[in-house]
Amino acid sequence: MEPLSLTDLAGAEFAPQTTYLDTSTGGLLPARTVAAVKLAADEFASGRRDVGDPFEAVAAARASFARLVGVDTGRVAVGSAVAVHVGLIATSLPAGAEVLVPEGDFSSLVNPFAIRGDLKLRYVPLDTLADSVRPGTALVAFSAMQSADGRIADLAAIRAAATAHGARTLVDATQAAGWLPFDAGDYDYTVTGGYKYLLCPRGTSFLTVTDRAQETLTPYHAGWLSGEDPWGSTYGPVGELAHSARRFDEPPASIPYLGAQHSLALMEEVGTEAIHAHTTALAARLRAGIADLGHTPVPGEGPIVAAPSLAGRHEALEAADIVTSVRAGNLRVSFHLYNSTAEVDRVLEVLGGRA
């Protein structure tokens, strides 16, 4: 499939009414997704269900996501939120199991383990995570890219350390899938919220589970859709659960997935490599510009740019109709395929007091 021009795509699919630089909070919805969601809402209201089969939409979204992260479709479960997926994993651990997590990682990844109260949570700095895996560590749970400041985990080192000590791995790819070339099959579990860099509606999320990890995960969310034959599983106990990771599905919401199938198809058309090149170039331009202004951004190579000394400039950016965010004391700017160098330069003008 020939990748689309990002410039042509941005003009055809996106029409922001602001300078939108906050994908790490939520990605913009493509025009094709907006049209599908509006049509679905209208038709569900009218009783005319001609918009398409929601179950086929879920299947299409599952397959697209699987291709984007390099795993077989049979290893992907769907749901509505990362915390729900993580909660399923947390319930599978025995009392007393040690879970190793980076300090300050996103709550949806950490809290399902903390809330149990009978697990040993050990928090360490992100840059020491690989060295902190030890005999007896049951699970290493971490984000591929930190939401607060854009730091990227040393994926290879953490994976090697976990393998050496027999620990399982859980990667939250919410801030990474879509722009970072990423093989979910390298980890026992991955969880990914769809509404950020995958440009899906809220209410879409994905769990990947290796064959080995599936053996010890209990499908607590299993309803009729988790049956090997869903339409034969609508009443009473499900006689035969799906042989794939579909048995771990949280029953998906129809309208978000009727939109998500179009967002994920678009992501496949463009390609992760093209999005990676575009977004990281914009971020590098902004980091260099911030440094020229006499400030020190958090070191990084991803599409999130964070600068603690510029958090106080957030209101000035808002006044200039530039959408960014403040997280953990950092001004946070995050890029996607719909952003441009002109927008980077506009941010620098405001930050430098020239606008």
List the helices and strands and how they pair.
Layout: H1 6-13, E1 19-20, H2 31-46, H3 54-69, E2 76-79, H4 82-91, E3 98-102, H5 107-114, E4 120-124, H6 129-132, E5 137-143, H7 155-165, E6 168-172, E7 189-193, E8 205-209, H8 211-214, H9 254-270, H10 272-292, E9 304-307, H11 314-319, E10 322-323, E11 325-327, E12 330-334, H12 341-351
Parallel strand pairs: 1-10, 3-4, 3-5, 5-6, 6-7
Antiparallel strand pairs: 2-8, 7-8, 9-12, 11-12
Descriptive report:
The chain is of the alpha/beta class. About 35% of the residues lie in helices and about 15% in strands. The protein has 12 helices and 12 strands. The relative contact order is 0.17.
Keywords:
alpha/beta; 355 residues; three-stranded antiparallel β-sheet; 15% strand
Briefly say what this structure is.
The protein has 355 residues and is of the alpha/beta class. Helices cover 37% and strands 15% of the residues. It has helices at residues 6-13, 31-46, 54-69, 82-91, 107-114, 129-132, 155-165, 211-214, 254-270, 272-292, 314-319, 341-351, and strands spanning 19-20, 76-79, 98-102, 120-124, 137-143, 168-172, 189-193, 205-209, 304-307, 322-323, 325-327, 330-334.
- Helical coverage, percent range: 25-40%
Radius of gyration: 21 Å
Percent strand: 5-15%
Q: How many alpha or pi helices?
A: 12
Strand order of the largest sheet: 2-8-7-6-5-3-4
Largest sheet: 7 strands, mixed
- Terminal-residue CA separation: 42 Å
DSSP, total strands = 12
Mass-distribution shape: globular
Say what oligomer this is: single chain
